[in-house]
Structures are given as C-alpha cells and as structure tokens.
Design a protein that fits this description.
The chain folds into two domains: 31-232 and 319-360 and 403-464 and 477-624 and 781-906, TonB-dependent receptor, beta-barrel domain (Maltoporin, Chain A), CATH 2.40.170.20; 246-311 and 364-398, no CATH class. It has twelve helices and 45 strands. The strands form eight sheets. It has a 22-stranded antiparallel barrel. Strands 1-4-5-2-3 form a five-stranded mixed beta sheet. Strands 10, 11, 17, 18 and 19 form a five-stranded antiparallel beta sheet that branches. A hairpin with a 3-residue loop joins strand 25 and strand 26 (587-601).
Length: 907
Amino acid sequence: MKLKIIAQSLALIFMSGAAFADDTPPPDKMQKIEITGSAIKRSDVEGALPVQTITHQDIERAGITSTEQLLNTISANVGGVYNMSANQAEGFGNSNITHNSGASSANLRGLGPDSTLVLLNGRRVADHGLNGSAVDLNSIPLAAVERVEILKDGASAIYGADAIGGVINFILRTDYQGAEVSTSGDVTQHGGGDIYTGSILFGKGSLQNDGFNFMASLAVDKSTLLAGNQRSFQNGYQPDRGLAPDTRGTPYADVKFPNGFYLPGNPNQQLWANMIALQGGGPNACSSYPQMIPYPSALWGYTSRQDACAYDYGSDWALMQPVEHLNLVSRTSLKLDSKNTAYFELTGSHTKATDYYTPLQLGSNSNFYYPAGGPYYQNFSAYVPGFDPTQNETIRWRCLACGEREETTTTNTYRALAALEGEVNNWNYKAGLSAAGSFANTDLVNGYVTTSGINAAMDTGLINPWLPAGQQQTAAAMALINGAKITGPVYGGRSRLLEADGSVNGELMTLPAGPLSAAAGVDFRRESYDFDINAYAANNIEQSTGDSSLSQVSRNIAAVYGELAVPIVKGLDGDLAVRHDRYSDFGGTTNPKISLRYQPISSVLVRTSWNTGFHAPDFAQLYGGQTTNSLSNSVADPQCPKTVAAINCIDSWNFQSGGNPNLKPEKSEQWSAGLVFSPTSHASVDVDYWQIRRTDRIVQPDPTIMINYPQYVVRNPDGTINYIQDDLTNILADKTKGVDLGVKLNGKVMGEKLSFNLDGTYMISHASQSTPGQPMTEYVGQFGDPNNTYNDLYLRWRHTASLTWTHDVWSTTLYDQFNTGYKDEVPAGTVPPGFNPNVASYNLFNLGVGYTGIKDMTINFTIKNLFDTVPPFSAHNVDDVAGAGWDARVGQPRLRSFMLAVKYKFL
C-alpha cells in the first residue's frame, strides 16, 4: 500500500468540503479545559499535540461494548498478543502470555503495553495483578465513560513512566442527573462468541444549583465461548498451502522405535509409526480417525516419520474465551464554594475468564511408554523387521479422555480517590489521594495431569492409548486418569498502587502576544507487587515449563514537574515541560518536552514537538526468580581455552535466566510534526509525522548469541563453560516512524445531515535489533522476526472510517476497518508450490441504524462484519496463540453478528 492512500484521503477534503453547507453560527467563547498531555488549561481546540477524542455517542453508534473493541478502532494501536483471542497461549507455564488471561492491553505505536500509559480521569490505575506490567482495559467501566482521549505522542515530561507510545485517558461522566438503563445482545450468525451487556446509571443533584452530585453506574457483560470447531477457517491441516501441525501426539498413539526400521520400497529409516497407517496401507489411512491426519513429512522435512500420524489440534482451540465482567463506578461531588469542589470516586471490577486448550499430548516431556505384556500392546512384528515385543513401547498420545485443558482466572480491581480541585487567586489547582489494586488468581479446572501420576497410571497397562474411534476408556482406566489429574489454585498475583498528587496552573503575566501560563506539580507513589505459584504444580504438571514465585516487592517514586505555555508572537505559541522522577530502586531520570504551535491563519495550524521518555523496569524484570535450562542444540565455545580438548568445547550448554536487579529504565527520544487544515468549520484534516527511538531495551537475549560475549559466560576452573548468564538486560534498541491521518467532515448535503470521520496510520518503519551492536531489522509488513516469532504485527496501513447520515429521529452509519496485508509465516520445512508468501488485506464493514423516536429511548441495531468476511489465510498454527490458518492479531473470528442495543432514560 503506497502513500497514495494518504493523498487520496487528503483530496477528499477538497472535493467534499464545498458540498457541506456552512450555516452554523460562530461558537461562543470557549471555556478553558485541561487536555490530555498538558497540565495547563487552555481553550485551543487543536493544540501542539495530536489528541484523538472518542465520545460516548461515538461508542454507542459504533456498537462498541468493551474497551477491547474500542481499542481496535484506534489506528495507532498495533495488533499483538494483547486481545482475548491472541493472548490464549499454550496453557499453564507460558508466563509471557497466559498471565494476561481475560485481560486486554493497549499497544500504541507497537512499543508494548508497558509503554502505553492508561489513565482514568487523568490519574493512574493499578497494573493487572498477574503480569504486573500493564493495565487491563476491561477493568475500565465503559458504560460510565464520557469520552476517551488518545494522546499520540510521548508524555513522560507530564506523567512520568510508560508514556512513550502515548496516553489513553478514560474520562468518566460527571454531574450526571437522572437515570438510565441499557442492555444489548450481540449474537453471531454462525454460533458461538455471543456478547450480552447490561448497565444502569443513576445521578442525583446539580453541583451548580444543589451543591452536590452523586453518580453511580453498575455494568455487567458476558461473552460466550467460541470454539475452534465452530469456524471452518480454523483449520490447521492445509499442507498444500504450507500449514500442517508438527506433532506425533495422536488419539490413536504413535510409537517410537529406538533403532528404527525400513519398509520395502522406502530407503528412509523410520523412527515413528502408527498401526493405522501400517495396516491401512499408508499414512492416508490416518484420516480414518477424527482429526487425525498423515504426518506432514514433506512439509517438515522429517523422512523418519513417513508412516506416523498427526493430529489437527488447532481445531480444539477456543477462538474466544468466555468472560464475565462486573464493573462499578461511583462519584460524589461536593461544592465547597463557588470555585472549589471536593469529590470522591470509587471504581471496581470483577472478571472471570476461562481458557480452553486442546487435550494434553503425553510423551513429549517425559519417558512415556506402554508396558510390554499390557492387554492393548501393539505388536508390530508383522510390519517392522526385528521388532521385539518384550520391550515397552515409547509413545506419543493425545489424551482425549483427560478432557480439554481448562483454566479459570478471576481478577478483582479497585481504585478509591479523594480529591480537591478549584481556583484560588485566579490559579487553578487539583490535589488527590488514591489507592488502587488488582488481585488475580488462576485455577486449574480440568485436563491437567501430573507427570508422575500419568506415568504410573499408564504403567498399569489398563489405559488404552489405541482406542478405536467412538469407543470409551473402561471405568478402571478412567479412575486411573482422573486420579492423575490436578486441579485447584496454580498461581496468583497482586499489584497495588498508592498515590498522592497535586498541581497548580494559571497565568504568570501578560506578554505582547498573550498570557504566559504555567503549571507545576508533584507526584508521590508507592508501587508494590507479588506473585505466588503452587510449586508442586509448577514442577509436576505434564508439559509445564514451570515458573517462580516473587515475594512482595515495592518501591517509592517521587516526582516534580513544571510546564510553561509561552506566546512567542501572534499565532506562534511554545510549550516547555520537564519532569524529574526519583525511584527508590534504580535512581532518577529527567525528561523534557518542547512543542510549538503556529497558526498563521484560522484555517491552518502547524505543530511540532520533541521529548524524551522512559519505561521503568517492572518488578518481575527486576526481581524474578532464576531458572536453569540447556540449549536445544550443541554450540561451539568461541573462546575455548587451548588447554581444553576441542570435543569438550561443543555442548548444549546450560544457561541461567531471570530477573536482574541492576536493570536501568528503557529510554526514548521522539519528535513529531504535523499540519491541521480546516478550510471551513465543517471540514478538517490533520496529518502528523512521528518518530520514536528507544535504547536500553529490556530483553532476554538469545543465549547462543550471549556466548560470544565473555562477560556473560561463567567458566569452570579448567576454562570450560559452566553456564551462560542470560538474565534480562538493557542491551538492544529499536526505532519506529510513521504518519497519522485524521479527517472530519460534517454538515448538510441536500438538507440531510452527514458526517465523515477517518483515523488512519501509515507506518513507514519499525526496525529493531536482535543482536547487540548489529544493524536493525525491518518488521513493517512482516509476520514476525526472522525466526517467525509471534510478536507485534506492524502493518503498513490501517484505518477506521465512518459515514453517518442523520434524518429526524433516524441515523445510519457505515463503518469500515481496513488493514493492509503482510508477509506470511514461512513454513519451517519444505515450502510447497501452493504456498502464498503474502497474507491478504483485511477489510470489515459494519452497518448501524439508530432510532430515537420513542421518548427517552435510544435503539441501535448494528450488523457487524456486514459481508461475513473471514480472516485472510495465514500459514500460522496455534502453538503461540489461537489462530490456525488465520492470524488472531488482526482477524475477527466471530464473523457476521447482529447487535441490538436499547437505552431508556427516566427520572
């Protein structure tokens, strides 16, 4: 997709602007308000910083029922493993993703959730209790949101840590009077993945007339399970297109032969085989068993498995997890006098999310075998020369009788705030004291077994791993399987935040070009986090990679900041801000920001800014426990001592990884420049170029790379390698840049009200280092890194556009969400002729109709995914996330759905 997309969108302004009647009277003098990204109140609608605003009406018209859906409409947010389809990892043990269960996170500019600052009414909330590094957006009470402001620029000079990619500020309703109830149902055409919501909002008292206001909102929502077998595009066996599972774990077990064997007419030694294939005359016979398939030897390049079977486990995967949310928000405001107000806010949420995964594959991480002499023993003597039926059979078995793996994560969050704001001697002030927390726990519900328990159960010979299709295990076998299962708590985490803040802003003096305004503030925080794990479960669950507990750790942060709004000459304004943060664990950091706003005529505004930012190391990064593993392949020691035999310098060396208390903060430097053109009061376009460079990235490097750096290699007295130190470290850098485009048109055409909005992002580059000191690798338009690692997806262009027609009590809106294509994941083995290296672009349309003809009632009906568009094919399987044959970072698995929302106001 070329830059012509932007040019064509710009041309739309000039072609359409003249068609809109400009009959709106001039606006009254605007009240000064505080905009996200600045501590100074001002009346400028467009400032020196790019801020996108989404109103409550926008949210309703779009049929948005969750913050995750809202996030998907923001073009600056990069798709990654942060939504409730993509964050379903391989079950327990994959701490990088599974610890986000039921959560959704923001990812502005593709810099990661920990580099996007999320605020509620301009103040911080606690990070998710399990991962301790990013806010769960689903804990935000969307039903009570008045608007959402998205600052698409760095803001560490005002807010401190994490505001590198930008800031998302959820602003709640205030001074609400009356009551309203709302409910909605969003039902899919093809079944599964339905969403239901309900809320009640109540407010009493006028702050201006009665001296008080009380507002409260209670909202519930429920998403139902969308299983993989409910969507035909969830298909992990398409070998002609480069997609097939690399697994020998089948319901009718594959058998491994330690010494191998040869079949007539096949010169390749075979190490794996399945009796179905041998008896049926070849691997195609595997397909006679549900979801079993021939092992894709040609695709994966393993000639030793040509008579084995495989299993399309992707079809078992849940595409959308069932989630239940309960959100509560209340605000009490008291008018102290004509210029001062006290208010108290309380927000809370309860989330229950359930993950479902394919049944366990047994035999991959343990010496798993069926005993010789057992009643179900497979005798291969007729097919395998020299087969010894007195030996145990090493097998890979998909334990369907164990049931789907099921985990439940429960998360409770809260924030309590007491604050004052007002005006003293023409200076505005605000001060607040808040406490926030997020407590989350994950329980194993079904499908998990202990390694020792299932090995002992199989050793009895009573479990049949070669059960014919449609038959059930015996009661005795099921008793053994159930006896090996493990359920109950597995891990939990708690994130807490205490904060006291205060700021003042006002005019210092009047300069020839206007008033010189200033702001100053202080911020004191105490952050704490702990993570505990069931050690028995971590060390004994089959296929668990383990994890480690982290006793409660905490730190204190003290910050001071200041800002000046300087009118330089008529039409040219500057803004200077600086903030110093002092952390009790790693020290201090100072971050400035400079921005300029030039408006030579009323229809043209030019803006630019430069700033630095930082991300403080997370607690798990600083203090996470150490684990020891070995390299998957033998690697030569590049500094092998001459006194050591060469054979002793090639090995699969041990490496230690974990937290590093000596980490420094990640740093950023960024700048932006933009133009806002408003030829009439009914048409505007804004174009902003942005660029961000991060250094001291906190990563866990590849140990096969770190072996080349002597300072990371711990040696024995004789000079041989003891282990490679592979802790998290500040070692890499990345750089990203692009262009944001915003278009707004509104007015009347032939007497009918029309409005058009477009929010688009063109990503020029996102380059990152994979090796210290080496050139950066470009990732825009790529599936992942060179090793096909499933990371963020940097699309060249993505946009959300809407066209709304309003007539009397009716409104109709057409929505469009577009994402360009990208290079697909390349098969690990032989690339088949039918493999398409490109994933197609993805375009979804929604059509909504609103009706307000009944007094105090609003009815909205929306057809989502109007044309029932399936996600484009990708040769990706589910080993990292939910998609098999499609990409969950960009695809929408629900397909077409029908949503009816009704809101009724009373009192």
